[in-house]
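User: I'm new to structure prediction. If I give you an amino acid sequence, what do you actually give back? Let's try with this one:
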Amino acid sequence: GPCGNAGPGAAPRRRLAAEDKDESGTLEPGAHLGRQDVLLRLAALLFLGKQDGCLLKDLGKALNLNNSAMTGLSNRLEANGLANKKACPNDGRAFRLHITRKGRQALAASFPLLAEMNERLAEAFSEDELDVVARFLNHLIERF
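Assistant: Good question. You get back a string of structure tokens that encode the predicted 3D arrangement of the chain. For your 144 residues, that looks like this:
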């Protein structure tokens, strides 16, 4: 459904909490990171690349993170120089997240990896099947 529910009888999606995260470093090669945290950082950078200066709560909603997890993620992004958190001038309780030059560089460096992943995922499908999947995913994006 529009609120993230899969329908009656479906298991509810659990929002990720801070304790689900790895407290280590950066997106750089060789860093000892949990896969989930690397993917969250990449997802955050992809979002910030399109919506720089978004509210933390909007990024958290897009990534399905609770407030505690979003605070931890934004703190790690900031500690690693990938983003800067700034108080919202209109609301002293809210913060905006801005991607840094280093964050844009890390994002750009991830594109070849993302392209390779897309190629590997696409290997098992015909062009017609990929078109159906693309239409379905685009429909999801537009609808929800």
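You can read the tokens as a compact description of the fold. Here is one thing that stands out. The two ends are 8 Å apart (CA to CA).
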